[in-house]
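@channel sequence for tomorrow's demo:
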Amino acid sequence: MVAQYTIFGRQVGSHVLAMLTLGTFAAGTTFAMSGKEKAKEQGPPINASSKDEEEFIQEFLKNNGGEQKAKQ
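structure tokens (generated this afternoon):
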């Protein structure tokens, strides 16, 4: 026989309370782990004196950044 508890004037079985507890824990864990994905790692801002210089630096980092990752 199942143990019965009176909650808000109703009889509730212990197995129902166990399922509700596990379900609440699973839902809370899922909610806590969801959220915004972390953005890509951003380096320091580029302080270029002109738009051409900024484009050159970005192109240089794009071309040489892949080589460094391949070496590691």
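heads up for whoever presents: The beta strands are 4-7, 10-13.
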